[in-house]
Amino acid sequence: MKNERLPILDIARIGPPDGRGYVTDEFWIADSQHDCCRYFERPVRLGGCAVGWCLSGSCSLSLNLKTYEIKAGDMFFITPGIIVHSVSKSDDFEGFMMGFTSEFIRDLHQAVNPLYPYIVQHAKLTIDSPDREKMTDFFSLLLEKALRREHLYSVEIIKSLLRILFYEVSVLYWKRYPQEEHPHTRHEEIFKRLMRLILHHYKEQRTVAFYARTLCLTPKYLSAVVKEVSNRTVTEWINETVILDAKTQLKSSQMTIQEVANYLNFPNPSFFGRFFKKHTGMTPKAYRQSELGF
Q1: Closest Cα to residue 205, out of 241, 167, 168, 249?
Q2: Which of 24, 73, 200, 289 shows the greatest Cβ crowding within 10 Å of its Cβ?
């Protein structure tokens, strides 16, 4: 158990084992007959995207250590690299879940970009009637089309349906959060690329200059774009990602505090301890003890 780190769950491993609902290995959709929650009984980092729709019952879902109570009429989004943990699920829970890789929807960027800033800030969206029935019909249609795996144009049909779904959900988000501006497509693309870079490099690179240089932007411009899109700074996003991984390792792995510090590339445990306390208000040891009930 020692040195065990948070596993990355490949999106293709979550779908139904009999292949029902798969269009390719990069997209699947399932209803309640397939228990997707069992793959998240222990915290994992998702290597892809997922969207869930609750029809009845409830479940408690932890996304990046923030717990969401999912009930009937709730939709939730999981973006690549998010730490997922299914805390609990009621016996009468029913719904849909679909998973796909970033590559599968790469050519749907015009529909994804307006939606992305909303799901980053609000991973759960509660949908009111009569839109709930429409959303259920939409997921049912996606499943119906996905089951026709041998269809000559199954991938194209699924992508077309996803494009419509993303646009529809973007409007529902905008209605729910009208104070938030309509996203600017180019700025949203920059923000999305930044978040991907942070997830790949946060253990080694923690300066705004590195990410700006990689994106071929000036630090000032990158900072302004990120502030506009997310109302947070680049540094805040970097630090949050580091702290999130540190908390997860302290809570869910058997690594010592020194091993966690090494894993996150801090020069020594003392430096890691000061960083962790600055951003959480407690030392790594105190956090681990509080989470494990010592």
Answers
A1: 241
A2: 73
Residues 213, 227 contacting (CB under 8 angstroms):
no
Rounded Cα distance, 137 and 142, in Å: 9
Q: How many residues does the chain have?
A: 294
Task: For residues 191 and 169, state if they share a domain.
Answer: no
Alpha helices of 177-233 — where are they, by DSSP H? 185-201, 208-214, 219-230
Q: What is the pLDDT of residues 123-147, one digit of tens each?
A: 999 999 889 999 999 999 999 999 9
Which CATH number belongs to the domain containing residue 195 in this structure?
1.10.10.60
> CB 186: neighbour CB atoms within 10 A?
10
Look at the block and give the residue holding tokens 């139904």.
16
Q: Are residues 165 and 256 in the same domain?
A: no
Those residues of the chain that have pLDDT short of 50 are: 1-3
Contact between residue 58 and residue 120 where contact means Cβ atoms under 8 Å apart: no
How far apart are alpha carbons 159 and 20 in whole angstroms?
18
pTM confidence score: 0.73
Where in the sequence is the domain holding 146, given as residue range(s)?
Answer: 8-176
pLDDT in tens, 171-211: 999 888 875 555 557 888 899 889 889 988 999 999 999 99
Distance, CA of 81 to CA of 244 (rounded, Å): 11
